DNA sequence: CTCATACTCCAAAGAACGTTAGATTATTAG
DNA sequence: CTAATAATCTAACGTTCTTTGGAGTATGAG
């Protein structure tokens, strides 16, 4: 009885460790973060994570075996997606824990936003209220496909690489809030910098769709 | 710029992976689960996890380097504890994800409770209401030190190994709800089995203090 | 059919990890 | 003081994991 109890426990903890093994590699975490933005092909994932296609495929296989992602074949491409929103919630959870516990990570994140702020950071609920009343303009600076897969309410799509050409569409009489994939993504930081240089009042909103949804706020598709 | 962006991202994800590495070993997960019950010495942890003292020490060092646990020396003993409730919340989070995604784990858990239920399982809020009104008796069957470190409201301490001798203290006119360390712990299962054999109406409550607290319910100390 | 593309499978090298044993450091008991 | 206990450190073994290169499938284009 003592013996079987130990065996059962070993089995149970080993199962949870399968999830742990899936998230102990930086590249796999980055792939999960990317997949939080919506379905993507292996090729696209490899390019955005800065790794070879073969390596991406291998990592995705690991994630698939842990049932964190699933695949769909369409033509020549294989598209991967998270198996559910709980996986995205988990990514938000482990990243939050790391941010809270690891001073190195806090320092690195602070560097991203060490530039002077004209406007103070917002909470999700505050932003939702302001956006609803039209007091701010919310920009989604991710690629269009990610915007289509799900975006913040009242947000307008304005991919980072089109931003310079489309400045005329933006208002000078109210603040602009730019967001992207989340705290580890640099696109909204770049966008806010560019806009501020051009004389707009812009801030970066740290959260992405995954964080927004994990906090129980609504996402538009 | 492209290059530094990649370097920053690599650094950020590598930091989160430090947490992932800490939870990719079954033994380390079990140690975290045990520490959710309160502060414990290395010796105690090693014994309860069924590993050697040396190995426990090595794993605890890993957890300490990830800042998930911290140590305190008292006399000849070193006592470890979680660095905060967010670590316990994370354990609940990764275990829940595993339960949801891994069919093997679901099957193993179902085996634990395949015995016929006289009473249906309860939610945390339901239990709290019943306990408050005195409609059920709540038993904490963990070792006394864990009860003292924090327990469910209205719960009475009744360690599993004392249960047989103290049956006279238990009521026959209302249901008894036994809980222990959580879903992976077998103590409450055993307790409920024993009580039902002896003619009491008893059920096992799956959640432990960590799950209870993670759901926002109050814990008594 | 042939070719290019997108991806997966297999094998191999090197790095990292889990585990155990032996020696070492603190602390308490006698 | 010496002996015993609790824990850590170091070294070493075998194992697993990451990453790359080469070969092999499926799909679509010409």
Walk me through what this model shows.
Two copies of one chain form a homodimer. With 221 residues, chain A is an alpha/beta fold. Chain A has ten helices and seven strands. Helices cover 50% and strands 13% of the residues of chain A. In chain A, helix 2 packs across helix 3 and helix 3 (42-49) packs across helix 4. Chains A and B meet through helix 1, helix 2, helix 5 and helix 6 of A and helix 1, helix 2, helix 5 and helix 6 of B. Chain A binds a DNA duplex (30 and 30 nucleotides) through residues 21, 24-25, 27, 41-43, 51-59, 61-62, 73, 75-78.
Greatest contact pair? A-B, 51 and 51 residues
- Tally of helical runs of chain A: 10
Low-confidence stretches of chain A: none
What would the average pLDDT of chain A be, to the nearest integer? 93
- What is the global morphology of chain A? globular
- The proportion of strand residues of chain A reads 5-15%
Key traits:
homodimer; 221 residues; alpha/beta; four-stranded parallel β-sheet; 13% strand; globular; DNA-binding
Give the topology, please:
2 copies of one chain form a homodimer.
Chain A: H1 2-22, H2 26-35, E1 40-41, H3 42-49, H4 53-65, E2 69-74, E3 77-82, H5 85-101, H6 103-112, H7 124-132, E4 137-140, H8 144-149, E5 155-157, E6 176-179, H9 187-197, E7 202-204, H10 209-214
Parallel strand pairs in A: 4-5, 4-6, 6-7
Antiparallel strand pairs in A: 1-3, 2-3
Chain A binds a DNA duplex (30 and 30 nucleotides) through helix 4.
